[in-house]
Amino acid sequence: MDQNRPARLAAHVEAARLDPGLYLVATPIGTARDITLRALDVLNSADLLAAEDTRTLRHLMDIHGVPLRGRRVLSYHDHNGERARPALMAALAEGASIAYASDAGTPLVADPGYRLALEAAEAGHRVHALPGPSAALAALSLSGLPSDRFLFLGFPPPTETARRAWLGQWIWTDATLILFESPRRINRLLSDLCEIDPNRITVVARELTKKFEEIIRGRAADLAAHPRMGLLKGEIVVLLDRAARPAPGAEQLDERLRELMARLSVKDAAKQASEEFGLPRRDLYQRALDLGRDQNGRADRPDTGETDGR
Ligand code: SAM
């Protein structure tokens, strides 16, 4: 048992009564001592506690010697939000202070709490953020990638088609990209990334603030071939450097494909354009087919000598 515990406990017990409202409490993503002093005060003083996982919050409070003193810990997560919100809203309406914590890190960041915070604010209640750990920002600060502009993308879709379309949508954004991913799917994500931009500097930040914290960094193609990638365990954040060159515009792409198709097969034109622009070959093949169809359609149309009025 921690020798400081009785002193800390006394300090919590004497904490002042909180103003009414919803308190969104960030909690550690690994090291329990990353909790903030204010988070401990609020957990100690709130009239009501709510958590994504009630056992996780009780365990955290236990580690830090924050007593429950008969207070209830309500469950509030993605699957019971609709059912659980009315009780929390009713408590707020009666002037209660509610502390809400997700499993780890900052609530609402790829975690529950958005609807609750929104409804509370719309109903005129005070919503307080208690800033603290977040895997996305911890990873960004360790990644060695530019931090002046970044975009948090959350989890990629799990299926290949959706993931590729999703990557295609965001990959050319002029910002450092931050993604959450499961270690079981990291290989698939890297292989999709290689299809689009194998040279993209990619960082895998693993087990942040924990004993086996690790940063793996390299080109997407290097990481995809990395022998450890398929064996990674724990929690990871993936970060992508911004694109080395801007994404080509649709017109520029079409013009180049037409040039190439004038002397190459559709397949070879798509292959060459894919190499030149660093875009997925299958997307360019599809676009080349569409362009070819358009051109043939126009050529096949009988020339009546009439204009379309423009
Ligand atoms: N709200 C949390 C936050 O602010 O950090 C994120 C919750 S999200 C459901 C969980 C994901 O965050 C994990 O799958 C992983 O991608 C990332 N993550 C959480 N803790 C991490 C850690 N210690 N190291 C690396 N990634 C972590």
Summarize the structure.
The chain is 42% helix and 16% strand. The chain has 310 residues and is of the alpha/beta class.
Q: How many strand segments? A: 10
Bound molecule types: S-adenosylmethionine
Helix content: 40-55%
- Give the helices and strands as they follow along the chain: HEHEHEHEHEHEHEHEEHEHHH
| CATH-defined architecture of the largest domain | 3-Layer(aba) Sandwich
Strand content: 15-25%
Query: Ends: how far apart?
Result: 85 Å
CATH class of the largest domain: Alpha Beta
Record keyword descriptors for this entry:
Cobalt-precorrin-4 Transmethylase, domain 1, 3 domains, five-stranded mixed sheet, 12 helices, 16% strand, disordered C terminus, binds S-adenosylmethionine
What topology does this entry show?
Layout: H1 5-13, E1 21-25, H2 37-45, E2 48-51, H3 54-63, E3 73-75, H4 81-93, E4 97-101, H5 114-122, E5 127-130, H6 135-143, E6 150-154, H7 160-170, E7 176-181, H8 186-196, E8 201-206, E9 214-219, H9 220-225, E10 236-240, H10 250-261, H11 266-277, H12 281-300
Parallel strand pairs: 1-4, 1-5, 2-3, 2-4, 6-7
Antiparallel strand pairs: 7-10, 8-9, 8-10
Helix pairs in contact: 4-5, 7-8, 10-11, 10-12, 11-12
Describe this structure in words.
- With 310 residues, the protein is an alpha/beta fold.
- It has 3 domains: 124 residues, 3-Layer(aba) Sandwich (Cobalt-precorrin-4 Transmethylase, domain 1); 105 residues, Tetrapyrrole methylase, C-terminal domain (Methyltransferase, Cobalt-precorrin-4 Transmethylase, Domain 2, 2-Layer Sandwich); 47 residues.
- Helix content is 42%, strand content 16%.
- It has 12 helices and 10 strands.
- A 5-stranded parallel sheet has the order 3-2-4-1-5, with helices on both faces.
- α3 links the parallel β2 and β3.
- α4 runs parallel beside α5, α7 crosses α8 and α10 packs across α11.
- It is elongated.
- It starts with a helix and ends in a 10-residue tail after the last helix.
- The C terminus is likely disordered.
- The structure holds S-adenosylmethionine.
- The site of S-adenosylmethionine has 21 residues, from β8 and β10.
